[in-house]
Specification:
The structure holds 2 protein chains of 2 kinds. By secondary structure, chain A is mostly helical. Chain A contains 11 helices and no strands. By secondary structure, chain B is α/β, with parallel strands linked by helices. The chains are: A mainly alpha, B alpha/beta. Chains A and B meet through helix 1 and helix 5 of A and helix 3 and helix 4 of B.
Chain lengths: 263, 334
């Protein structure tokens, strides 16, 4: 099983890096977002609501979340491609369990997302002069892994049943932006936020991922004390539960046959 | 041909030595029956062909045997193991070559095989050795490090075959293996399957709609609309039609066939506006027909029976026309 998971993960990475335009797209867009929004919204941002950070700094975990979200979910497009190009059928008749197949994809997507998250984080640390120590770095890394694993799982659930990449893009464009915008990545939730919006944010699993990144970034500094948002423990608990749930669901859905397999 | 002869196991092997056996196999896509009570068995070392037009159910049968879909009714066994209950064990015994390519185009031939090997639990030096061996066997060793997207259809097919053979399966399942191959490459493929059978005792089961490919099989199962209509060696199948097949083109083929039948005491079939007669002595018969209906015949030809004639003989339909009324929905193109 380990060998099967390893080989499927490895293939995912090789495939990705051989398609150079995907690498550029995945990292370029969030950086542009960060620079443009960061610069444009700087003046209208109330520092006190976010532990005294500038908007550029506040936005860093949000951009990391965006990178993870987009890379992880779009990595699962490879499922649709594999099905269409025929590669998937040879995996389906190989003596490997569906759990291996799912883990291979999820870990593959996770690696891709985390690699890019780390690259951006290094950039942000240098550009913003953020404080960094090994413990912070390790917990940031762990948070990124957890978040991208579950997001790849979410992508898997949707991609498994999609018959075309266009369909997948359509579903995802409806899903992804609200999920990211309403996660505390783009703006902090405060007492003035409308109740319905606050509820959406509370129910969005991504909220806890962003909070987890924020807590990891300021680990031990106490800068988030008194700032509105989920506690570190809650963020970790919900993120872990979300990851587990996505894995279980992805495995269940992969046991189903899809119309595309019968064509 | 009776149901009894259809289900008879191959004479060369005993029941214990069967590579594959299906019994009472049925499968439906919604309201359409793709397979309807199919029963046959394949002996070890055979090159067994499933011949039928598109929609005859042969691809569905292939999918069941390759464990892609479980049977809805009846059983299918590979080397005595049930495809539904012992799926994992069956998967280790079979090498599958799909009609649609299954190679990852972004990977090289060697990388494709390496991943395949890992999926079958192979690794390390042993795997590297086998990859080299298999690529040599299909004549692709010098292309090992080329991306498969840069290869021709025939070359990819060969890598595909190497991929299926990598874990040394005892049964190769091939779905329309000659799709996209030129005639030379097709012959190579059949030669290679025969070599595998003779040297390593590997059984091959392939689906085909090509008569020339079917001719090369040790035994053939002829399928139509989900049913097995004949099962025998290609020679024996052709021998069921004695002598010759005479095809006649005349105006008003239906009426002409009736007159022909009455005049010459024969039973002509009309298939696709053409009158078709099986006759022990075709040449003499042609002379009789021409004499009996002077000036009415547009064309007349006499030939030895082909497998296509066998198909027409068994079903009363032309092979190629049967696909339009196939048992599977039209969108399931094979």
């Amino acid at each position: 099983m380990v060998l099967a998971v390893y080989t499927l993960t490895h293939r995912e990475l090789v495939r990705f890096f051989r398609q150079r335009n995907r690498v550029i797209g995945a990292l370029g867009q969030p950086i542009i977002f960060w620079l443009l929004f960061g610069a444009g919204l700087r003046g209208s941002f109330n520092r006190d609501l976010a532990g005294g950070t500038s908007y550029m700094e506040f936005f860093v975990p949000g951009v990391v979340a965006m990178i993870l979200l987009f890379t992880a979910i779009f990595s699962t497009i490879s499922i649709i491609e594999d099905r269409r190009e025929g590669f998937l059928q040879s995996v389906l008749v190989a003596p490997v369990s569906r759990a291996s197949l799912v883990l291979g994809k999820l870990i593959g997507g996770m690696c891709l997302a985390v690699i890019q998250g780390v690259i951006f984080m290094l950039l942000a640390v240098v550009a913003q002069g953020l404080e960094m120590d090994p413990l912070k770095a390790a917990s940031l890394f762990g948070a990124m892994c957890l978040i991208s694993f579950s997001l790849t799982g979410l992508g898997f659930l949707i991609a498994w049943r999609c018959e075309s990449t266009q369909g997948f893009h359509a579903i995802m464009s409806v899903f992804l932006f609200p999920m990211w915008l309403l996660s505390g990545a783009f703006f902090p939730v405060t007492a003035e936020t409308p109740t319905w919006l606050a509820w959406v944010v509370t129910l969005n699993p991504m909220t806890y991922g962003v909070a987890l990144l924020r807590h990891a970034l300021y680990l031990g500094s106490g800068r988030l004390d008194g700032v509105n948002g989920p506690s570190a423990g809650l963020a970790l608990g919900i993120s872990a539960a979300f990851a587990l749930a996505m894995f279980v669901c992805a495995q269940a859905v992969s046991a189903r046959r899809v119309q595309g397999d019968l064509q | 041909m009776s149901a009894e002869t259809l289900s008879a196991p191959p004479s060369t092997t005993t029941a214990a030595g069967l590579a594959a056996e299906v019994d009472g196999l049925s499968f439906r896509y919604k309201e359409r029956a793709a397979l309807d009570g199919v029963r046959f068995s394949v002996g070890k070392g055979e090159i067994f062909g499933l011949l039928g037009p598109n929609g005859s159910g042969k691809t569905t049968l292939f999918r069941i045997l390759s464990t892609l879909i479980p049977p809805q009714q009846g059983t299918a066994r590979i080397f005595g193991k049930d495809v539904k209950a012992e799926t994992e064990a069956v998967r280790r015994e079979i090498g599958v070559v799909f009609q649609a390519p299954s190679l990852d185009k972004k990977l090289t031939a060697a990388e494709n095989l390496r991943h395949q090997g890992h999926l079958y639990g192979l690794g390390g030096a042993e795997l590297s050795k086998r990859i080299g061996e298999m690529l040599s066997r299909v004549g692709m060793r010098d292309r090992a490090n080329d991306l498969t997207e840069k290869m021709s259809g025939g070359q990819r097919r060969r890598v595909e075959l190497a991929k299926g053979l990598l874990h040394r399966p005892k049964l190769m399942l091939l779905d329309e293996p000659s799709t996209g191959l030129d005639p030379g490459a097709r012959r190579d493929l059949m030669t290679y399957l025969k070599e595998l059978s003779e040297r390593d005792g590997v059984t091959s089961l392939l689906t085909t709609h090509l008569m020339e490919e079917a001719e090369q099989c040790s035994r053939l199962a002829v399928m139509r609309e989900g049913k097995l209509v004949a099962l025998d060696t290609p020679e024996a199948l052709k021998a069921t039609i004695g002598g010759h097949v005479v095809t006649i083109k005349m105006k008003d083929p239906q009426g002409a066939a009736v007159r022909l039948g009455a005049r010459l005491q024969i039973k002509p079939q009309v298939v696709d506006e053409t009158i078709r007669v099986e006759h022990p002595d075709g040449h003499r018969f042609v002379a009789q027909v021409v004499e009996a209906f002077p000036g009415e015949i547009d064309s007349i030809s006499v030939s030895k029976p082909t497998l296509e004639d066998v198909f027409v003989h068994l079903t009363g339909h032309r092979f190629w026309e049967a696909k339009d009324e196939g048992a599977e929905p039209a969108k399931k193109k094979h």
